[in-house]
Amino acid sequence: MSARIVTITSGKGGVGKTTATANLAVSLASLGKKVICIDADIGLRNLDVVMGLENRIVYDLVDVIEGRCNLRQAMVKDRRIPDLYLLPAAQTRDKTAVSPDDMITLTDGLRPDYEYILIDSPAGIEWGFRNALAPADEVVVVTNPEVAAVRDADRIIGLIEADERRLPASLIINRVKPDMVRQGDMLSVDDVIDILSVRLLGVIPEDEYILIASNKGVPITLDHQNSPASTAFRNIARRLTGEQVPLINLDSRGGILRRLARIFGASKAAP
Amino acid sequence: MTSLIDRLLGRKTPTSAELARERLKLVLVTDRSDLSPETLEQMQAEIIQVITRYIKIDQSKVHIKLEQRARENYLVADIPLVRDHSQSAAPPPPAPAGSAQLAEPEKPSGS
User: Fold this and answer.
1) Paired strand residues for A138
2) Tell me: the pLDDT tens digits for A116-163?
3) Distance (Å, rounded) from C-alpha A19 to C-alpha A265?
4) How sure is the predictor about A267, in pLDDT bands with cuts at 50, 70 and 90?
C-alpha cells in the first residue's frame, strides 16, 4: 500500500475545506479505503471538532515532529467507521513549528499503511499552505460561487500551476443554491469553471444538515447519509478513487425537489 | 435581483450573477498578470506610436487588453486601419529601433 496524498485547500477561509476534508475522509473510508486525515492548520485546529473527535486527542502533529511521541500514539481512530484516522493539529503552537520537510517526513511514515492521506490546509497562501502542499500528490481546491472565494481559488490554482511538480488540481464548488443560480443571482457551476479553467471534481449543494452535523460532531456523511450534500460528497470520493461518476447538471428543468433528487441522488446509480 | 417581470419582458438588466462574472473576469486579468492598468495604458500608447510609424490607424478605436483563454493570458489588440489608402503604402519607416522617441508627437488622426 502506498497512500495517495490529497491536499484540500481554498485560499479564502470559511468556504468549507474542513467540512469537505471530514466528509471525503468518511466517504473514502465507507468505500473500504484506509484513510487518515491530517489537520495542517497549526494553532487553529478544527478538523477534530468537525469530526467529533476532540475529546480523544492525546498528542498532536507537532508532538510527532518534535519527537515527543510516535505517529501511532498521535493518531485518533474514528470508532464509528473502520479504517478512518485523524492526526490532529497542535492548538497551542504556531505554524512555524512545522516545516514543509517535516510534512514530507511525516507523510512518508504514513504512506505504507494507508490508501488515502487527506491534508486539511489552512486558509491563506503562506506558511501553513506551503506545509500542506509539500507532500501532496494531488490538490483539491474548495470554493463557493461567490466573487471573493473564486478570486482566491484562482490565486491558489495559479500557485499550484507555478509549482514545478505540476500537481493535478481539481475544484469542488461548495454551497451551491440551484434556485438562486436559476434566478441569475448566483454564479453557476459553468460560470465558475469557465472563469477558473480547472477540472471540476464536484458540486456540493447548500444543505442545512451540514450545520446540524457539525453541531453534533458527526460528519453529514455519517449523520444524514441521504441528504443532498452527503450524496455529493460520496460522489466526489468515488471520483477521487478514479471512478467515473457523472457530474451534476444544475440547469436541468423540473421541480426543485425533483431536480435536487436527480442532481445529487440519481448519479448514484450511474456507472 | 432582476425581477421575473423584467425578464419576461426581455429587459436586459444584467443579473447579479452576470455582474459577478464580469467583475471577476476583470479582476483576475489584473491578478494573473503583473500589469497594472496604468502600465497597460502606457504600453498601449507606445505600441500605437510604433505602429503609426508604419501604417495609418484609427487611434480612437484601438483596444489593447489582457485576456484569458483557459489559464493562459493573451495580450489582444484590435487596431483598425484607416480606410483611406490614397498614399500607396505605409510611410517610410523612420530610423531603426533604438532611436524610438517616446516623446515623438503624434499627428492627430481624423477623430
Assistant:
1) A6
2) 999 999 999 999 999 999 999 999 999 999 999 999 999 999 999 999
3) 20
4) very low
**Which residues does B88 contact at the CB level (< 8 Å), separation at least 6?**
none
The residue in chain A having the minimum alpha-carbon distance to the alpha carbon of residue B70 is A197
Nearest to B24 by CA among B68, B65, B78, B77: B68
Residues 6+ apart with CB under 8 A from B110: B58, B82
Report the range of poorest mean pLDDT among A132-146, A207-221, B83-97.
B83-97
**pLDDT tens digit sequence for B11-67:** 678 999 999 999 998 888 888 887 777 888 888 889 999 999 999 998 888 888 887
User: CA B95 from chain center: how many Å?
Assistant: 26
> Is A183 within 8 Å of B2 when comparing Cβ atoms?
yes
pLDDT value for A103: 97
Q: For chain A, which residues make up each domain, given as ranges? A: 4-269
- Other CB atoms within a 10 A radius of the CB of residue A62 amount to 21
Q: Is the ipTM of this complex over 0.95?
A: no
Distance from CA of B71 to the nearest CA of A (A): 6
Q: Which CATH number fits domain A4-269: 3.40.50.880, 3.40.50.300, 3.30.300.10, 1.10.10.10?
A: 3.40.50.300
Closest among A195, A17, A7 to A100, alpha carbons compared: A7
- Grid coordinates representing B5 are 417581470
Distances (CA, A) of B95 to A212, B100, B101: 74, 8, 10
Q: Are A97 and A62 in contact (CB under 8 A)?
A: yes
Judged by CB atoms closer than 8 Å, whether chains meet at B1 and A198 is answered as no
What does the block give as the cell for A17?
475545506
- Contact between chains at A183 and B15 (C-beta distance less than 8 A): yes
The rounded distance, in Å, linking the Cα atoms of A124 and B6 is: 41
Confidence (pLDDT) at B40: 82
pLDDT tens-digit series, residues B98-111? 444 444 444 444 44
* Rounded distance between C-alpha atoms, residue B90 and residue A157, angstroms: 45
Q: Flag if A150 and B24 touch (Cβ within 8 Å).
A: yes
